Amino acid sequence: QVQLVESGGGLVEAGGSLRLSCAASGRTFSGWAMGWFRQAPGKEREFVATISRSGGTTYYADSVTGRFTISRDNAKNTVYLQMNSLKPEDTAVYYCAANPRTALTVRIYARRDDYDYWGQGTQVTVSS
Q1: How far apart (Å, rounded) are the C-alpha atoms in residues 52 and 50?
Q2: Distance CA 33, CA 101 (A)
Q3: Mapping DSSP to helix (H, G, I), strand (E, B) and coil, where does residue 64 land?
Q4: Given this model, what pLDDT does residue 90 score?
Q5: 39-69 pLDDT per residue, tens
Q6: What is the distance in angstroms between the CA of the first residue and the CA of the last residue of the chain?
Q7: What's the whole-number average pLDDT of the chain?
Q8: Which of 20, 36, 23, 117 is nearest to 75 (CA)?
């Protein structure tokens, strides 16, 4: 059974930074593409960022491009989301997700149904 556990959320002022972490169980972590999504109150869960198995390819939602950076450490089975220049509209519960059906060729996985495993989420609140 795959488990994903997020941490690092909290309350921060606009313009500040946070670093989210997602620790994954499972010996095949390095074979999965990983993603971060977020869900604000009253809104649907939306894509934030994704990273390929090796970490060599990343892709971001337009709303976070240039401010957020996704990375991974396969030796630690962990994926990160560095969030800088935070805005009040970034307030949401942030979820990491794993795609165990990752193709051997590099692809971009930006849809919710690309991912089979989800963490419990971590709250990020940005005050104005």
Answers
A1: 7
A2: 8
A3: coil
A4: 98
A5: 999 999 999 999 999 999 999 999 999 999 9
A6: 40
A7: 95
A8: 23
